[in-house]
Amino acid sequence: MDGDSRGWMILLAAGLTEVVWATAMGLSDGFREVGWTLVTALFLTVSTWLLSRALDHGLPVGGAYATWVGIGALGTVAVSSLIGMEHLSAGSLLFVLMVAVGVIGLQATGRGHGGVREQ
Fold it and tell me: 73-79: long-range contacts at Cβ-Cβ below 8 A with a sequence spacing of 24 or more?
């Protein structure tokens, strides 16, 4: 696996761990639930560390950050809806999909190969 592919795989993992910490934060009851607070802190740390590792593989910071946030936002909305933390209306689904379109558009119009910064 080349450096670019490795960077994107690490970024995907960073986004998925963001879903975990964001969902755990919602379950922490304002950080009053110690277990969920610890899960939040752990996965927030891991997610941020993974984002930094993805950047080390040459991904541009703006595009990588937008993708990380997009994965986290879409995943958190999906998970929180599936476990009953929030209701996903047709309108909110439309706007969440607009986030996805924005991230995809940013990547599609990025510099270099697949939005990866040129070395």
Answer: 73/99, 74/99, 74/100, 75/15, 75/16, 75/18, 75/19, 76/18, 76/19, 76/22, 76/23, 76/26, 79/19, 79/23
Half-sphere exposure of 24 (CA within 13 A, CB side): 17
The CA-based angle 53-48-58, given to 5 degrees, is 30
The answer on pLDDT for 32 being more than 60 is yes
Residue position matching structure tokens 């969440």:
96
Place of tokens 């899960």: 39
Q: Please tell me the pTM assigned to this model.
A: 0.84
Q: How would DSSP label each residue in 16-27?
A: HHHHHHHHHHHH
Note the pLDDT of residue 1: 66
Mean pLDDT in residue range 78-99: 92
